[in-house]
Design goal:
Strand content: 25-35%
Distance between the termini: 21 Å
Helix content: 25-40%
Shape: globular
Number of strands: 6
CATH topology: Nucleotidyltransferase, domain 5
Structural class: alpha+beta
CATH architecture: 2-Layer Sandwich
Strand order of the largest sheet: 3-2-1-4-5-6
Length: 114
């Protein structure tokens, strides 16, 4: 199962595609559109849709962009602190058909050594 990771930050958005063995198949960084929430969501969606066969999306970031992105992908809401990791099963992202499988706050990630 290939996996896509998205790091959404204030100045850049980075996407990465990992193969089953963990090797990096694709990596791209784009500028975060300053002060334009819709353009930011579009930039993330563009990165995700470059690899529509991916079955799992990992998202890392913080408010307010991440909550809005999770809502766009799943139709639900989740509150993010800086450094929170969301795991979304990506069956039908375009139609808000993604499923929020897990949400890991920074304290949990630190406790497992991530």
């Amino acid at each position: 199962m290939s996996r896509v990771g998205i790091d959404l930050g204030g100045t850049k958005i980075e996407g990465i595609l990992l193969e089953d063995d963990g090797s990096i198949a694709f990596r791209r960084r784009v500028a975060t559109p300053a002060g334009d929430y819709e353009a930011t969501l579009d930039a993330v969606a563009d990165l995700l849709l470059e690899h529509p066969g991916s079955e799992c999306v990992l998202l890392c970031g913080h408010q307010p962009d991440m909550s809005g992105l999770v809502a766009e992908l799943t139709g639900g809401m989740a509150e993010f602190r800086k450094g929170t990791l969301a795991v979304i099963e990506a069956d039908a992202l375009r139609s808000r058909g993604g499923y929020l499988k897990a949400l890991y706050p920074p304290s949990t990630l630190r406790s497992i050594g991530v």
